[in-house]
Amino acid sequence: MKTFIRVVELWVPDRTRMRLEFGGGLYGEGLSAFRAVSEDLRFGYDEGLPGKAWASGHPVILTKFANSYFKRTDQALAAGLTCGVAVPVFAGEFLQAVMVLFCGDDEAHVGAIELWHNDPDTSHEMGLVDGYYGTADMFEFNSRHTRFPRGFGLPGRTWKAGLPLIIKDLHNARSFLRWQEAAEVGINLGVGVPYRTGSDQSWVLTFLSAQATPIARRFEIWVPNEARSALVCRAGDCSAQTDLAALYADKSIAKGDGGIGGAWATGMPALNDDLARDGSIAAAEARAAGLSQMVALPVIGSAGLDAVLAWYL
Description:
Blueprint: E1 5-13, E2 19-27, H1 32-39, E3 42-44, H2 48-56, E4 60-62, H3 73-78, E5 83-91, E6 94-103, E7 111-118, E8 125-132, H4 137-144, E9 148-149, H5 153-161, E10 165-168, H6 179-185, E11 187-196, E12 202-210, E13 218-224, E14 231-238, H7 244-247, H8 258-266, E15 270-272, H9 281-288, E16 294-301, E17 304-312
Antiparallel strand pairs: 1-2, 1-6, 2-3, 4-5, 5-6, 7-8, 7-12, 8-9, 10-11, 11-12, 13-14, 13-17, 15-16, 16-17
């Protein structure tokens, strides 16, 4: 089963901290040529997709590679990649890393990715910056003409919560305000990821996918417990219909434990292409389900870690 997210890359400052170099990646089947090209690249400030996110200071979405600042257009198109998103991770004003996600679809694989933004000086609502919708033309039209108040729809609810959010069965979820259009194109799952900058600007990334093309094979949201002594699983979704709430009901992850605990300890995204090297309960359960690759993205608030979003390819 193909996933909507096909590639995840990590770009980190080199020893001069003036350029970004390849810091690892996870690549789906048939993408070895794209990886080979990527490993040798370097990006300066405001150069390419990673450099653009660095300079912007917030997530960047690129829905068309051709005739843009993107550096690997021919290789991406040959690999069937159709859009990219770059998420910078900062410690104060200093860049720690840029995570880049590449997605792919075709006529048989439906997915959408969106970037929403609120500027409190100009609006009380969140509007669409840009999005990739594939062949879902009507869904795209309605999305581009919709704005979400805080607490409404997937973007507004994610914005209000300040935490990653998963909405399942979108065709039955009245909290997803575009449920009718989503049902028409088969989109049934949404994941929202919040992002705040020091200037009070708020951003939300949303991933929307159909059952035949899950965003990833499994999603998990881990948050600190009340004592902030460990992470507990707040929500999740698995394409194999595993009951993650029951699976992790009495389980936790300590700071520094595996990729998820490591993302908490370091504030850095983590990529793992061999879960046998990860000793956490999450990795053990993922291996038991036949999963082998994991991504952990820390969501950092003003007072420290708010959550770790983990997904498995």
